[in-house]
Amino acid sequence: MSEQQDAQAERAIGRLTIADPLTSEPVTPVPVPKPDREWKLRNGFAWVYYGKGSPGITRPVLMADGFNLGRSNLEWLYQGLEADFPLISTLRDRGRTVILLGTDPPARRPRRGAHPSLPACAPPPSAGALSGRETK
């Protein structure tokens, strides 16, 4: 491959995009229903959509935003997950609860456990780890 072809290929790859830019509006807006529940979480928030015929959480599916630099826009996330294929609606029709997790903008540099779902998933560090000493 010549240098010119190599440069042309590199420019073409630079334009390659896996998804629409984060600031883009949906091509066909989808109506976003009011969530069944709204939760305030440490470092974030969640919208909960119960499955069809379910009065509570059943076989939950968690979907997280947090790829922007500011506060998550769960309406935008919902529309993105429903636009081309009705993913949320299909899960709910099958009786699954869908929980959309959003993040608040960080007040300082992110740290381990900063995502709202991590405190429930990751064990807290031991006292020794916090002080720099190992404990057994």
Automatic annotation (TrEMBL):
Sequence ranges of Low complexity compositional bias: 127-136
Region annotation (Disordered) ranges: 1-35, 102-136
Name listed for the protein in its UniProt record: Uncharacterized protein
Question: Organism, per UniProt?
Answer: Protofrankia coriariae
